[in-house]
């Protein structure tokens, strides 16, 4: 790359004229992953997207399905899974194995080099087991450190990191971590060196005023009306941790956060934008 008459080292273009380069972090939910046609169309858009990018995926419903087949019942509280030893084993197989590897293979098929990661790989997502006196979440962790140098080394090689919703303690214990939180923590950490944008793609077109009406997308959501919508129970289930993560991100250095469906990366589609 030629810049101001000198050759920049191949990927040393994070800051040009003091401007940070934009990094896009995209999270896809389990319901989207399950729909082959939607996933394929999403991946086309993702591959086409220019600049450094990171993909994070969930897969909660697949884990519930596989756990059920193995005879384990799943318990969720406010959109978060209670994870005992058996469910952690299922999660490692489903998120870290089946889903992560299938998504990476799908990207490779579209000529996008990618690498699948859980928190233990490259010590990339270090977490702490959640201690909650009222609810025992089991093997559930909250991210305390993101290895941004490792992530950057992949981005510099044009390799897309694909994260599953699994983190790891400093002592090497794998922990289930909400995919939305994985996405927001990575984006927040990467904001140190990049201008960052976070995209949440799920089965809905955004935050809906009426969950039964797909055309009731709230186009802009701020922290004030967000609290009102929780109080009036318009926002429930998986949307609770998702929006908590959105506001965390926007208040901790992320430039823009968007929520939408599988088409979110296309131009002019209806979506929700999070504002301060
Ligand atoms: N107001 C709302 N607008 C849109 N979705 C909502 C709302 N309240 C609750 N939800 C639920 O939240 C879900 C999204 O959260 P989640 O299932 O965790 O998605 P994902 O698997 O994509 O992360 C939606 O599928 C919907 O059922
Ligand atoms: C702690 C916790 O709740 N972890 C989530 C991680 C997967 C996830 O986030 O999946 P979706 O994006 O498909 O909802 C779970 O096990 O369901």
From TrEMBL:
It comes from the Bacteria. GO terms for cellular component: cytoplasm. Its main location: cytoplasm. Its EC number is 2.7.2.8. Signal peptide: none annotated. It catalyses: N-acetyl-L-glutamate + ATP = N-acetyl-L-glutamyl 5-phosphate + ADP. Gene3D superfamilies: Acetylglutamate kinase-like. Keywords: Amino-acid biosynthesis, Arginine biosynthesis, ATP-binding, Cytoplasm, Kinase, Nucleotide-binding, Transferase. It is an enzyme of class 2 (transferase). Substrate binds at residues 59-60, 81, 176. Pfam families: AA_kinase (PF00696). One of its GO terms (biological process) is L-arginine biosynthetic process via ornithine. It is found in: Cytoplasm. The record marks 27, 242 as: Transition state stabilizer. GO terms for molecular function: acetylglutamate kinase activity; ATP binding. Residues 23-258 form the Aspartate/glutamate/uridylate kinase domain. Pathway: Amino-acid biosynthesis; L-arginine biosynthesis; N(2)-acetyl-L-ornithine from L-glutamate: step 2/4. Catalyzes the ATP-dependent phosphorylation of N-acetyl-L-glutamate. Belongs to the acetylglutamate kinase family. ArgB subfamily. This is Acetylglutamate kinase. It comes from Christiangramia echinicola. The lineage of its organism: Bacteria, Pseudomonadati, Bacteroidota, Flavobacteriia, Flavobacteriales. The gene is argB.
């Amino acid at each position: 790359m030629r810049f101001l008459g000198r050759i920049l080292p191949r990927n040393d273009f994070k800051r040009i004229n003091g401007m940070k380069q934009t990094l896009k972090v995209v999270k896809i939910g389990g319901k989207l992953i399950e729909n082959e046609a939607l996933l394929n169309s999403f991946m086309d858009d993702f591959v086409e997207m220019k600049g450094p990018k990171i993909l994070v995926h969930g897969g909660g419903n697949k884990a519930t399905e596989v756990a059920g087949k193995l005879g384990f019942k799943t318990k969720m509280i406010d959109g978060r899974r209670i994870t005992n030893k058996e469910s952690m084993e299922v999660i490692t197989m489903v998120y870290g194995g089946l889903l992560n590897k299938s998504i990476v293979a799908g990207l490779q098929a579209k000529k996008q080099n990618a690498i699948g990661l859980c928190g233990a790989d490259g010590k990339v997502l270090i977490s702490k087991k959640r201690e909650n006196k009222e609810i025992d979440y089991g093997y559930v962790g909250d991210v305390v450190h993101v290895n941004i140098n490792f992530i950057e080394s992949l981005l510099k090689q044009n390799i897309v990191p694909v994260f599953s919703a699994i983190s790891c303690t400093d002592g090497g214990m794998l922990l289930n971590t909400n995919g939305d939180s994985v996405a927001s923590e990575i984006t927040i950490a990467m904001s140190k060196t990049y201008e960052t944008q976070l995209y949440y793609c799920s089965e809905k077109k955004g935050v809906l005023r009426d969950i039964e009406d797909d055309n009731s997308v709230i186009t802009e959501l701020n922290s004030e009306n967000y609290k009102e919508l929780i109080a009036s129970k318009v926002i429930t289930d998986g949307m609770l941790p998702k929006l908590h993560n959105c506001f965390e991100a926007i208040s901790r250095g992320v430039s823009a956060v968007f929520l939408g469906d599988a088409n979110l990366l296309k131009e002019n589609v209806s979506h929700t934008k999070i504002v301060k």
